[in-house]
Every structure is written in C-alpha cells, then in structure tokens.
Amino acid sequence: MHVVLERAVNEISSEIRELDAETTQLHPKGLSYKWSAQQVIEHLVLSYRFTTEGLEARLNKGLSRNRTRTRLQWSLQLMILSFGALPRGVPALDETMPTPGSFAAMNGRQLEHLLRQEMGAMDAVLDRCRRKFGMERVSTHPWLGPLRVDQWRRFHIVHGLHHVTQLRSVIELVSPSPAPVRITRENLVEKLQIPAQRPLA
Question: What's the CATH number where 74 sits?
C-alpha cells in the first residue's frame, strides 16, 4: 500500500482497534440517525469500493475525451486537495451511505482488517491506472470532477482524516464512563499522588 495511505489507515485504525463488537454498534446518545463507529468505517469502505469500481471501468474503457473541470470543481479541488479542508455538513453520496444489515457486526480488529483490505484493493487499482495513464486525469469524482491518481490518494487521505474526528467523538459518547475513584484514608496519599514527606533538617 502507498505510504501516505498507510499512514492514514493507521491513524483511523488506532481509534477503533480496541473496541468490542457491542461498542462499535452503539449510536451516540442512542440516536439511530447518528452513525455508530462501525457505520463510519462502513462509509469509508464503501467510498473505497466506489472509487475502485470507477477506476476499473476507466481501465476497461480507456480515458475519456472530456476531462475538463467546472469552476466549482476547481474551487473544491483547491479547498480539499490543496488545503486539506473538507466542508462540514455535506451529505455522503448515496453509494457510500451505510445501510443497516449490509455488514455483519464487527469488533475493532475486524473493522481494521476490512478497512485495510478495501484500501489496499483500491490502491492496487490506482497503481494500475498510473502505469496505464501516467499523470492524466483518470476518473471523475461526483463533486470534484476528473482527478489524477495522486489526487485520488490525496482525497481519500483528507476524507479519512476528516472521519477520524467523527470517530473520536462517537467513541467518547458511547464508551462506558470510567468507575469513579473512591478515596479512603488508606489510599489518600496514593490517589492524590502526594510525594512522601521527608523529615525537616
């Protein structure tokens, strides 16, 4: 896998790796319209699959003659690919929306494996496109327009790291609260980390 994608998947994986299958299914504040941790990963996986399918279709057909960008697409490419700023509140594409029951419930390790598998498959197709098309724009993103191979990788890095923030928020809201510390006379010094007293000289 390309080193920049490897770094991104490592950061995403570090957030979910230790979660059990019960925690990955929980919705923040019990609201079903808010994505669970697994649904965030499903969304990323579906976005990799959507990209892979588009790239494979382009490999089969060859490059399109019309690879121009609109002014809006140029602006979005500048914002997202150059400055790494993904607009908040933009709805996910229908093709990348997680739907209940489409994936079995998984724990963090299983989700990490799925994430790496799908990103690796997408990266392999990106390599094939680079060998066949070089620095040409190879496939069209619905919002950003036609992108080169390096731009596709950059998009998925920015998109993935955008969802790291969401994952942290979800996990913080659904993880069980730590048990309160019980202070007694016997453990007061230990719990408050008071340094040992020394006799005065």
Answer: 1.20.120
